[in-house]
Amino acid sequence: MDSTAMSNWYSQLIKPEWAPPGWLFGPVWSVLYILIFISFSYVFVKTVRGHFPYLVALPFIINLIANLTFTPIQFGLQSNFLAAINIFVVLCSLIWAMVVIYPYAKWVTYINIPYLIWVIFATILQFNITYLNW
Fold first, then answer.
1. Crossing angle for the helix pair 113-132 and 25-48, nearest 10 degrees?
2. What region, left, alpha or beta, does residue 67 occupy, with left being phi > 0 and alpha being psi -120 to 50 degrees?
3. Residues 6 or more apart in contact with residue 111 via CB below 8 angstroms
4. Maximum Cα–Cα distance for the chain, whole Å?
5. Which residues are within 8 A (CB) of 56 and not within 5 positions of it... i.e. 6 or more apart?
6. By C-alpha distance, which of 103, 99, 109 is closest to 40?
7. What is the pLDDT of residue 42?
């Protein structure tokens, strides 16, 4: 399915009045992906070099996989229900990652606060969209 068809599908969904305009998602995720790249890369490098236990990297890996599969699930499969489950996994794994890394590198937790705030918002939005279009 091409991006126009995906965009048309999403634009036809019932959304809450407080849903942000579609154009806002690109710029927000662009900034967040920079923060994610910096902090997650640090964790992965430190883990591979043996400075962090491998279990510290696990929630970061789960988060990255869940984050990267959200768009194919939401727009490719056009499944609001699966997207709601997926974004909940993103949220839970991010909280887990932030808690686990805190004793080793507090700045990684702090740099991910904007990501956490956005994912909380996105989770609430996705749950609302799923409910409204059930």
1. 130
2. alpha
3. 35, 38, 39
4. 49
5. 43, 47, 100, 101, 104
6. 109
7. 98
Expressed in angstroms, the distance from the first to the final Cα of the chain is 22
Look up residue 88 and give its two tokens.
């909940």
Q: Are 83 and 130 in contact (CB under 8 A)?
A: yes
Helices (H), 1-134: 3-11, 25-48, 54-71, 80-101, 106-111, 113-132
Task: Give the mean model confidence (pLDDT) for residues 37-65.
Answer: 98
Q: Residue 1: pLDDT above 70?
A: no
Two tokens, residue 73: 């699930």
Distance CA 107, CA 80 (A): 34
- For 108, the token pair is 């990684």
Structure tokens at 6: 């995906």
pLDDT in tens, 82-110: 999 999 999 999 999 999 999 999 999 99
